[in-house]
Amino acid sequence: MIGVASIAVTVGAGVLMTVADRHTYPSIGSGLWWAIQTTTTVGYGDNVPVSVAGRLIAALVMVFGIGFLTVITAAITSTFVSRSRLDTGSDTATRADEQFRHLDERLERIEAAVSGAEAPTAEQFREIDRRLERIEAALTRPS
Questions:
Q1: 3-state secondary structure of 23
Q2: Which of 56, 65, 68, 78 could anchor a disulfide with 39, C-beta 3.0 to 4.6 Å?
Q3: pTM > 0.70: yes or no
């Protein structure tokens, strides 16, 4: 879509420049060459519009060229950022898996300690409660 818009603006500007500034751009080829230079922001400066209409067209093409390059740059940057987030996300998932395994092992030890006693005492319940609070805090803490 962006490429189609860019080609349309470039060809349209080349034809318009040939009509608007016929003295400087006597052929469609010279108008198209100017439009390509301007849209891509190369702008050698060897051919510049002289008429007011030609300069207005030039201003619009320059703004479009800068906007086009900005959109392309943003799209490329977005791709890099997305890929980086995916890579970072897998590292975070691995760390979370390790934390869950560690917490699971701790819970198994707590359950084994509690199940060995005939009836849990109030102190054992408080100890379990403290450990569960630490586990909950570890799970809700940002990594």
A1: coil
A2: 65
A3: no
